[in-house]
Amino acid sequence: MGKVVMYSSVSVDGFIADENDQPGPLFDWLRGGDVPLDESGELKVSQASFDYTRAYWDQIGTTVVGRHVFDMTDGWDGKPPSGIDHVVVVTHRPAPEDWDPEAPFHFADGIEAAMAKAQELAGDRIVEVAAGEVGGQVLAAGLVDEVRMDVVPVIFGSGERYFGSVDAQHLLEDPDEVIQGNRVLHLRYRVRAI
Length: 194
What we know:
Blueprint: E1 4-11, E2 15-17, E3 35-36, E4 44-45, H1 47-57, E5 60-66, H2 67-72, E6 86-90, E7 105-108, H3 111-122, E8 126-130, H4 133-140, E9 146-152, E10 160-161, E11 172-181, E12 184-191
Parallel strand pairs: 1-8, 1-9, 5-6, 5-8, 6-7
Antiparallel strand pairs: 2-10, 3-4, 9-12, 11-12
């Protein structure tokens, strides 16, 4: 079984979206360099960000997101982002009526079902959990092994929190990696066992 990683770009004050539910400049670092991050050529980062991010992306087997993210992105038009094989959507609603049943997206009612399906699909590869409410729920359930953050030098003041509405203390180990890119600081922490 692969490890579970909670991940997102985040403002210095801990938000993954502003008060209008927009990412603002959080993803500007993905266009702030000269090294293509994927075959589209649209994403270009610094060499340091490429080395860190590409190696991570290549290990992801499944990404778990909430229905809110799925709806906001229009389900990435049925194509998982960043070359990921599968996406599991945590939702209490069925797939959209016009959804292509062949798309590698799976809909699960609750985090336990979502994580079981994600682990099954990922095998020994990483299960990535999007930060926010769903990520916070998975962390609170003790199912997250590692937290990765791409910290962007912006302060939102309010908005969608990286850890969602987690209301208990969780300790992380010292950072395993701290990588400086252009307009981003990549951090990786293991979650301390309770």
